[in-house]
Amino acid sequence: MIKTKFLLLTQFIAWIGLTMIDFLEEFIFIDLQFEACLFFPIIVGIFYFIKRKFIWKEKYRQLPIWKIMIRVLIFVLEWCFITVSVSTIITILVFNEIWIIPQGMDYFNGMEYPVYGFFLCIIPIVLILIGEIVIWFFGKCRTYLNK
Protein backbone atom coordinates (compact mmCIF):
# COMPACT_ATOMS: atom_id res chain seq x y z
CA MET A 1 0.00 0.00 0.00
CA ILE A 2 2.43 2.67 1.13
CA LYS A 3 6.07 2.24 0.21
CA THR A 4 8.65 1.69 2.93
CA LYS A 5 10.66 4.61 1.54
CA PHE A 6 7.77 6.96 2.29
CA LEU A 7 7.52 5.59 5.85
CA LEU A 8 11.25 6.04 6.40
CA LEU A 9 11.11 9.58 5.00
CA THR A 10 8.23 10.37 7.36
CA GLN A 11 10.22 8.97 10.29
CA PHE A 12 13.25 11.00 9.26
CA ILE A 13 11.24 14.24 9.13
CA ALA A 14 9.52 13.55 12.46
CA TRP A 15 12.80 12.75 14.24
CA ILE A 16 14.48 15.84 12.78
CA GLY A 17 11.62 17.88 14.24
CA LEU A 18 12.14 16.39 17.70
CA THR A 19 15.91 16.84 17.46
CA MET A 20 15.49 20.52 16.60
CA ILE A 21 13.13 20.97 19.56
CA ASP A 22 15.60 19.15 21.82
CA PHE A 23 18.39 21.42 20.59
CA LEU A 24 16.30 24.47 21.49
CA GLU A 25 15.55 23.00 24.89
CA GLU A 26 19.16 22.08 25.67
CA PHE A 27 20.86 25.28 24.51
CA ILE A 28 18.27 28.06 24.42
CA PHE A 29 16.07 26.79 27.28
CA ILE A 30 12.77 26.82 25.43
CA ASP A 31 10.46 24.14 26.77
CA LEU A 32 8.48 22.74 23.83
CA GLN A 33 9.11 19.04 24.37
CA PHE A 34 5.56 18.05 25.33
CA GLU A 35 4.06 19.97 22.42
CA ALA A 36 6.49 18.34 19.99
CA CYS A 37 5.66 14.87 21.32
CA LEU A 38 2.03 15.49 20.39
CA PHE A 39 2.34 17.77 17.36
CA PHE A 40 4.60 15.69 15.11
CA PRO A 41 2.70 12.37 15.52
CA ILE A 42 -0.60 14.15 14.77
CA ILE A 43 0.97 15.63 11.64
CA VAL A 44 2.06 12.11 10.61
CA GLY A 45 -1.56 10.95 10.88
CA ILE A 46 -2.69 13.89 8.76
CA PHE A 47 0.01 13.13 6.16
CA TYR A 48 -1.37 9.59 5.92
CA PHE A 49 -4.77 10.89 4.87
CA ILE A 50 -3.25 13.35 2.40
CA LYS A 51 -1.23 10.52 0.85
CA ARG A 52 -4.21 8.16 1.07
CA LYS A 53 -6.19 10.36 -1.26
CA PHE A 54 -3.64 9.77 -4.00
CA ILE A 55 -3.10 6.07 -3.25
CA TRP A 56 -6.61 4.74 -3.09
CA LYS A 57 -8.27 4.29 -6.43
CA GLU A 58 -12.02 4.46 -6.93
CA LYS A 59 -12.34 0.65 -6.91
CA TYR A 60 -10.84 0.47 -3.42
CA ARG A 61 -13.34 2.91 -2.00
CA GLN A 62 -16.18 0.43 -2.42
CA LEU A 63 -14.42 -2.40 -0.58
CA PRO A 64 -16.07 -3.95 2.47
CA ILE A 65 -14.81 -2.73 5.81
CA TRP A 66 -12.90 -5.94 6.60
CA LYS A 67 -10.78 -5.62 3.44
CA ILE A 68 -10.08 -1.99 4.22
CA MET A 69 -9.11 -2.90 7.78
CA ILE A 70 -6.75 -5.62 6.51
CA ARG A 71 -5.01 -3.04 4.31
CA VAL A 72 -4.84 -0.61 7.23
CA LEU A 73 -3.59 -3.37 9.54
CA ILE A 74 -0.74 -4.13 7.12
CA PHE A 75 0.16 -0.42 7.10
CA VAL A 76 -0.02 -0.28 10.90
CA LEU A 77 2.30 -3.26 11.26
CA GLU A 78 4.79 -1.71 8.83
CA TRP A 79 4.58 1.60 10.66
CA CYS A 80 5.08 -0.07 14.07
CA PHE A 81 8.07 -2.08 12.87
CA ILE A 82 9.79 0.94 11.33
CA THR A 83 8.98 3.20 14.31
CA VAL A 84 10.24 0.69 16.86
CA SER A 85 13.41 0.09 14.83
CA VAL A 86 14.23 3.77 14.36
CA SER A 87 13.27 4.65 17.95
CA THR A 88 15.47 1.91 19.35
CA ILE A 89 18.47 2.99 17.29
CA ILE A 90 18.06 6.66 18.23
CA THR A 91 17.46 5.85 21.92
CA ILE A 92 20.62 3.73 22.05
CA LEU A 93 22.58 6.58 20.45
CA VAL A 94 21.15 9.08 22.95
CA PHE A 95 21.86 6.99 26.05
CA ASN A 96 25.38 6.16 24.88
CA GLU A 97 25.96 9.89 24.27
CA ILE A 98 26.66 9.44 20.57
CA TRP A 99 23.63 11.48 19.46
CA ILE A 100 24.17 14.84 17.75
CA ILE A 101 22.62 16.74 20.67
CA PRO A 102 24.65 16.22 23.88
CA GLN A 103 22.41 15.25 26.76
CA GLY A 104 24.13 16.54 29.89
CA MET A 105 24.65 14.64 33.11
CA ASP A 106 21.08 14.37 34.42
CA TYR A 107 19.86 10.75 34.44
CA PHE A 108 16.42 11.63 33.06
CA ASN A 109 17.78 13.87 30.33
CA GLY A 110 17.15 12.12 27.03
CA MET A 111 14.04 10.28 28.22
CA GLU A 112 12.01 12.28 25.71
CA TYR A 113 13.38 10.15 22.88
CA PRO A 114 11.82 6.80 23.90
CA VAL A 115 8.63 8.61 24.96
CA TYR A 116 8.51 10.32 21.58
CA GLY A 117 9.03 6.97 19.86
CA PHE A 118 6.04 5.59 21.77
CA PHE A 119 3.87 8.59 20.84
CA LEU A 120 5.08 8.42 17.23
CA CYS A 121 3.93 4.81 17.09
CA ILE A 122 0.58 5.06 18.88
CA ILE A 123 -0.96 8.45 17.99
CA PRO A 124 -0.85 8.04 14.17
CA ILE A 125 -2.26 4.50 14.46
CA VAL A 126 -5.21 5.66 16.54
CA LEU A 127 -5.88 8.58 14.17
CA ILE A 128 -5.65 6.32 11.13
CA LEU A 129 -7.97 3.65 12.53
CA ILE A 130 -10.59 6.18 13.63
CA GLY A 131 -10.27 8.05 10.33
CA GLU A 132 -10.64 4.92 8.20
CA ILE A 133 -13.77 3.87 10.08
CA VAL A 134 -15.27 7.36 9.73
CA ILE A 135 -14.42 7.50 6.01
CA TRP A 136 -15.94 4.06 5.46
CA PHE A 137 -19.08 5.02 7.41
CA PHE A 138 -19.61 8.25 5.46
CA GLY A 139 -18.90 6.43 2.20
CA LYS A 140 -21.62 3.89 3.00
CA CYS A 141 -24.03 6.66 4.04
CA ARG A 142 -23.38 8.48 0.77
CA THR A 143 -23.94 5.25 -1.19
CA TYR A 144 -27.28 4.63 0.53
CA LEU A 145 -28.40 8.24 0.10
CA ASN A 146 -27.63 8.16 -3.63
CA LYS A 147 -29.84 5.09 -4.19
Written account of the structure:
- This protein has 147 residues and is an all-alpha fold.
- Helices cover 80% and strands 0% of the residues.
- It has helices at residues 4-28, 33-55, 58-61, 65-95, 112-146.
- The relative contact order is 0.15.
Core attributes:
mainly alpha
Largest pleated sheet? none
Tell me, briefly, the overall form. Answer: elongated
Distance between the termini: 31 Å
How many E-type strands?
A: 0
Approximate helicity band: over 70%
Low-confidence stretches: none
Entry summary:
This protein is mainly α.
Secondary-structure blueprint:
Layout: H1 4-28, H2 33-55, H3 58-61, H4 65-95, H5 112-146
